[in-house]
Amino acid sequence: MNPIDTGFSCPIPGKGEDPWMSSLVARCAQLAMLLEVSASPKPGNVDKEHNYPDTCFEHFVASSVSVYPVLELAARSSSGIGALIRSAVRESSAWQQGGNTHFGAFLLLIPLSMAAGNLFYSHKESYKLSPEEFEALAARAHAFVRETDCEDAVEFYRAFDVAEVRVNSVDEFNLGDPESTAELREQGVTLYKLMDIARGYDLIANEWTSGFGRCLEGARSITEFMQAQKSRAENSVLNCSGTGINEAIVYTFLKLLSRHRDTFIQTKFDKDTADHVSFRAGEILSAWEKPSGHTRDFASLLPAIQEFDSELLKKRINPGSTADIIIAGLFIALLGGLRF
């Protein structure tokens, strides 16, 4: 079998005639993953400044590059989400030895890439989403995940054979037990149903069942931050250094982390630890934001962010689910024409 031949994915008629469209979607997804891991400091997570003992910055880079064919196929597909996820995990694992890097991100990027391809297929002029179309993108992704079937659930479980993922098992369906796939078929459990069961304690599952709202929140935050920075630069007599994208990602990371408990932390540690991390992120965010809604200079907040980063790294507390949401938000923003 070809490494990316999922066996289930169904290309949308006519899409094969325009490979540039699916390539654009895949490149936006790749760039989103690369920008997220490069942004620093994102408290607790691997970035270009520091690694974990077994997982390094370069592992994330290799994973981001390796999954291009799967993402490109997803943009041309209207079904087979589970098989696409397993293919993405397999490609990622084949190109790096750092274990799980992007499992949660794949769960978001695959249906969003399918939705982007579907939406762009109806575009007549250009492959670019207007801010008003962000909602339509999320709605189409939600429609795709709701249409998943039992085979998607089985493929999702098979992905755990190659991905080293820390996750709560879904009630009676043990993710580490191969016999669970037989039970899934016997009971006709779909992948969406599995996510619905897990939505109360898993941030990514909640995105699937609630319509990708936090991904949209991330996209809007990043876009608005970049627009505000551009406006300040145009009205300033000083020369501004940098592109602003690093600050936009760090700002949005803290914003989402403060508003939504990171379930990766909750799974690895406990609810109280996750709540404490959200509280600390909120403290820094409050100091960063002015009452008018504008932001203070990034450099003035950098010591506090670095201290928070060191604290989490020392305790090996990594907000992985929030990083996955950031990737999805960046992806949507890039589809909307974000450039820097």
Automatic annotation (TrEMBL):
One of its GO terms (molecular function) is glycosyltransferase activity. Pfam families: CitG. The keyword Transport does not apply. InterPro entries: CitG (IPR002736). This is Triphosphoribosyl-dephospho-CoA synthase. Its EC number is 2.4.2.52. It is an enzyme of class 2 (transferase). The keyword Glycosyltransferase applies. Keywords: Glycosyltransferase, Transferase.
